[in-house]
Amino acid sequence: MPQRSGQPPLPSRQQLANLRDFVHGRTYSAASVAIRLDGAPPHAEGSPLDDVSKVANALYEVVNTLGRPVLDAVHSGQPNDEACASWIALLLIAQHWRDSPDLPADLKALVDGALPL
User: Fold this and answer.
1) I need a surface site. Which of 45, 48, 55, 104 has the fewest CB within 10 A?
2) Comparing C-alpha atoms, which of 39, 90, 44, 94 is closest to residue 64?
3) pLDDT tens digits for 32-83?
4) What is the predicted pLDDT for the residue at 18?
5) CA of 91: how far to CAs of 5, 46, 49, 56, in Å?
6) DSSP-assigned states of every residue in 33-98
7) Cα-based distances in Å from 4 to 1, 80, 93
8) Residues 92, 7: Cα–Cα separation, whole Å
């Protein structure tokens, strides 16, 4: 897929899926402290555990929402400003785990190569 001026190239479908899965995995790992067992009472509204749960859910939704225009552009072969901006946002999210040993090598190269923007 052709690169837009001054922006990192869009990923392959597999790279996008790998990045999404990686960020979702890190989010789940971070939010594991807020997971409630069946039958456990809900976390107190406004408590730190309630906040962790809400942040994890929000990040999950953000990653999925950002991934949609990127996936559409990858499938169509037509990069556009929305897809490029969404991909940059996903890379910025992944940047926070750039030193994670769980970050696949191909994603590390993408994150390191695209940032700082």
Assistant:
1) 45
2) 90
3) 888 777 788 888 898 888 899 899 999 999 999 999 999 999 999 999 999 9
4) 94
5) 17, 30, 27, 18
6) GGPPPTTPPPPPTTSHHHHHHHHHHHHHHHHHHHHHHHHHHHHHT---HHHHHHHHHHHHHHHTTT
7) 9, 8, 21
8) 13
For residue 99, give the nearest of 108, 89, 91 by alpha carbon.
Answer: 108
End-to-end CA, the chain? 19
Cβ atoms of residues 81 and 69 within 8 Å: no
Q: What is the pLDDT of residue 1?
A: 47
**Residue with token string 């939010």:** 31
Length of the chain equals 117
